């Protein structure tokens, strides 16, 4: 038996995405910049995938720029967004619970003279509109906040922040790392109001190695990679066509089934919460909001021990972000949780392929772990 519940780290590639990737690798393998037949075939695949991603984002295709991953998209948006605005100011607003792709990029900008205000999160890991407004200054040039916290599932009101920035007539660009929110929460680029949006393929059943950055029409930032004219001259390098085609297919499928899939994941999450709390009253649920992430703690137990026990039963969960190896979670520390709660936390995350039997197996294995470890 294999019960995979680490979908916030990565998802299984769906059949449709794998099939189109294989087709592009073995048949439609031309360079989309070439002008011969094979090149034109590849260009048609590229254009179709860009339309599919744009449709899922609710924007126009020329606002979508393919990258290698969500982390690259974050780096590009933050670095070049800040650089494009530095004559107007050097103040950036972010939070203490961002992904390391954001945190470390901001750290580099601080070394270059930018000032970064890291806001404290709400108890669920989200950031409030009022906190952003209080931190806003005349020299604020960039606000970068994740839509869904990758460890707690807390949802930040990006649309509300965008409205506040407009009402305050702020010059600041607004970027959101929507890697965990894309195809998990209903939004469109138009209604969200962000200037830049980072997304990733491997969180929605596309392969690893592909992401995208939405850049709103009229927002002027510099290219991230210099060289050829690919991606409208904004990111040089021959496009990763198999991954791009797969990303497009995955977006189309996710968009078509999003409402039902999100309802299904939310119901499974609630089912897990109810059973775990009934079986083990000391279980603490941390955060919440997004349908696919459940962070729970068994205070007094070590998450590594729990994970090893579950893995022996064929159940796969994680401690925190897959990008963070070792050490305590900076997210949970920022929430002010006591060490015994942090040390006993595991993250359980669902996908559209998760079933009730998976939840039953998880709950049974966690209860067995709890009872077994309690008697050691």
Write a brief caption for the model:
This protein is of the alpha/beta class and 376 residues long.
Structure description:
The protein contains twelve helices and twelve strands. The protein is an alpha/beta fold and 376 residues long. It has two domains: 3-11 and 258-374, Aspartate Aminotransferase, domain 1 (Alpha-Beta Complex); 15-253, Aspartate Aminotransferase, domain 2 (3-Layer(aba) Sandwich). The strands form three sheets. The protein has a seven-stranded mixed beta sheet with strand order 2-8-7-6-5-3-4, sandwiched between helices. A three-stranded antiparallel beta sheet has the order 9-10-12. Helix 2 runs parallel beside helix 8, helix 3 (70-85) packs parallel to helix 4 and helix 8 (241-279) crosses helix 12 (356-374). The radius of gyration is 21 Å and the shape is globular.
- Helix-and-strand structural type: alpha/beta
Unreliable runs:
none
Instruction: Report on the biggest sheet.
Output: 7 strands, mixed
Query: How would you describe the shape?
Result: globular
Give the CATH H-level superfamily of the largest domain: Type I PLP-dependent aspartate aminotransferase-like (Major domain)
Number of domains: 2
* Proportion of beta-strand residues: 5-15%
**Helix content bin:** 40-55%
What is the spatial order of strands in the main beta sheet?
Answer: 2-8-7-6-5-3-4
Q: On the 0-100 scale, what is the average pLDDT?
A: 96
- String of helices and strands: EHHEHEHEHEHEHEEHEEHEHHEH
Count of alpha and pi helical runs: 12
Oligomeric grouping of the chains: single chain
CATH domain class name of the largest domain: Alpha Beta
Based on the coordinates given, report the CATH architecture of the largest domain: 3-Layer(aba) Sandwich
